Amino acid sequence: MTEFRVPLPADLRARVLAASADARPPGRGLPEVPAIPPAEAFRRAADALADLLAGLQPGQWRRPVLRDLDVQELTGHLIGVERDIQRALAGEVGVADADHVASTQPTALAQAGVPPEVTRTAWRAAVEETLELVAHRVQDRAPVAVHGMRLPVGPLLVVRAFELWTHENDVRRAVGLPQRAPEPPVLQLMTALAVQALPHGMQRAGQGSATLDLHLVLTGAGGGTWDLRLGPDGGTGGSIPEVVIVAEGGAFCRLVANRASPRDVVLQVSGAASAASAVLAGAAALALD
């Protein structure tokens, strides 16, 4: 039997890739996650923490949770953070480089002996005040200087959502409740900001002197794909990355929050082991606590 082979069209590969890109832009997962503004992400994170605190029993407020703080004092820490954010929004320079922990510690410790409901109500009122202050400034690109950060209002609110989610899970761990993953639209903002901040984290971790190309894939709703050049040069990564890291998006955010180590997270890593370690150390160095 004679076998006939028909040659494929020369442009077939280009046509398939173009059709795929039209169906789904590179670096974005399906189904699409609806975009929300940073203020909404902050509010959703605050609502989730508020619901958790409202359901605590009196004795659970005394549970040790983080550093030397119990749950009530940690809530006081968050009151202090909101107050510093509000001072920064007002242009006060005293909070620009204040330490995130030391600056809020007096407010945290002041909750000792206060009825928990008073602390919870004061924190929620502080959140609402912050939201009122930023209502007309979310498009403002001028940096707000607070706790060593220089960020426009939008990214700053994502940082705040990130912290509230992190501390919500700190409280959940302290009282024996399961961890909660961020809602996909909130996670989408968190992962994008964390990836953007990776070069800063690597500098903080003492890993920013050498240039390396990273291909980072964060799976699940709210994830994405990034090609990055980390180090002094910065910018977009090259076509052949030195290291490829694949992780679930929420797990990566736990690394960024310094609530999980690389040993605790399912990671797929290829390329130079030292480069991967540098990237993961840079991610963990972004945590404020």
Keywords:
Nonspecific Lipid-transfer Protein, Chain A, two-stranded antiparallel ribbon, alpha+beta, 289 residues, Four Helix Bundle (Hemerythrin (Met), subunit A)
General description of the model:
The protein has about 290 residues and is of the alpha+beta class. It folds into two domains: about 40-175, Four Helix Bundle (Hemerythrin (Met), subunit A) (Up-down Bundle), CATH 1.20.120; about 185-285, 2-Layer Sandwich (Nonspecific Lipid-transfer Protein, Chain A). It contains nine helices and eight strands. It has helices spanning about 10-25, 40-55, 70-90, 105-110, 115-135, 155-175, 185-205, 250-255, 275-285, and strands at about 65, 70, 145, 150, 210-220, 225-230, 245-250, 265-270. The strands form three sheets. It has a four-stranded mixed sheet. Strands 1-2 form a two-stranded antiparallel sheet. A hairpin with a 2-residue loop joins β3 and β4 (about 150). α7 crosses α8 (about 250-255). The radius of gyration is 22 Å and the shape is globular. The termini are far apart.
